[in-house]
Amino acid sequence: MAVRFDAAAYSFRKKCPYVSKDLLRWFPGHMNKGLKQMQRKLTSVDCVIEVHDARIPFTGRNPIFTNTLTGAKPHILVLNKKDLTVRSLIPKITEQLKAHENIQNVIFTNSKDQDCRGLKALKPLMVELIKNSNRYNRSEELDYNVMIIGVPNVGKSSLINMLRSRNMSVRHALPVGAVAGVTRSLMTKMRINDDPKIFMFDTPGILEPSVTDIEMGLKLALCASLQDHLVGEEAIADYLLYWLNSHAKFKYVEYMGLEEPSDDIHKVLIAGAVKFNRVRRVRDFDGSMREVPDLLEVARTMIKAFRTGELGKMLLDIDLLKCRSKDQIQQELSVEM
């Protein structure tokens, strides 16, 4: 049984670790090109599905989408990777998105689970919204076109593959990966349903050209919407450590081979290097070789543990849930530990 620690016994950092905004700014040419392609294709689209990470439902969504893509068409917000978030808070998240952000169609999915209830509900909702909308120049068309949008690495291609597999019993057709930026241009439309005929456009993940909030950028980096090497794995691991300590989530202590919680990322990574035997050989000034802890590799191991759920279910936006006291938040978090 895991040891429980009293957060009040420790003096943890109160402020988010500082990272230069330049490290959180990633807007390569394919994103700009992809955004223009998406805007041009909008006239032939009947519905827009925005996919985002369920661990950050209130932060990191690209405001460019709201201004240029989702306003004129029926819009569904799909919060994917629900298996990695705090499930007991899903009703509260949905309620807040509807009340404060005017997003009326919210579905939580796990695009790796073919039996996911959210996936089953998505197609009927798409069809209903399109049938009840003014399709303008497409009113005579019998087929439905749907565009999938979102920031990088939230599961857009995986969602299309799973819908195609569920509804048409065919193999996956789109490449997917754990690294942001696999889809680099707007692809040919894929049929995901026969009756009615529904086609989907996969699109590249697109971030804001500039990051206005450092913690938002670090949340995106932690959820793999930014490429790790651009931000730095140790910086991402340090933010993860800060967040875990701030919310009394101490599974990392046993996982990283520590005796108790620590606020020092170097101490945590060195302990992890000992536990996982992660070392590298370096040459000294006299030409001799010696072994040192491979902190970069250990930071990658710690980040991966978060992304796969080994450190527990997380809602990184827990502090943004309105009308919730600290006691309520801790009670909800403790249920998932």
What does this structure look like?
With 337 residues, this protein is an alpha/beta fold. The protein contains twelve helices and eight strands. The chain has helices at 29-41, 63-68, 90-100, 117-131, 156-168, 214-222, 228-231, 233-246, 251-255, 265-276, 295-307, 326-335, and strands spanning 47-53, 75-80, 106-108, 144-150, 190-193, 198-201, 279-283, 289-293. The longest helix has 15 residues, at 117-131. It is elongated and about 75 Å long. 41% of the residues are buried.
Task: Describe the structure concisely.
GO terms for molecular function: GTP binding; GTPase activity. By secondary structure, this protein is an alpha/beta fold. It is 37% helix and 12% strand.
Fraction of residues in helices?
25-40%
Largest sheet: 6 strands, mixed
What spatial form do the alpha-carbon principal axes imply? elongated
Which sequence of SSEs, written as H and E, runs from N to C? HEHEHEHEHEEHHHHHEEHH
- Number of helical regions: 12
Mean pLDDT comes to: 87
Proportion of residues in extended strands: 5-15%
- State the total count of DSSP E strands: 8
Secondary-structure class: alpha/beta
* Termini Cα gap: 12 Å
Order of strands across the widest beta sheet? Answer: 3-2-1-4-6-5
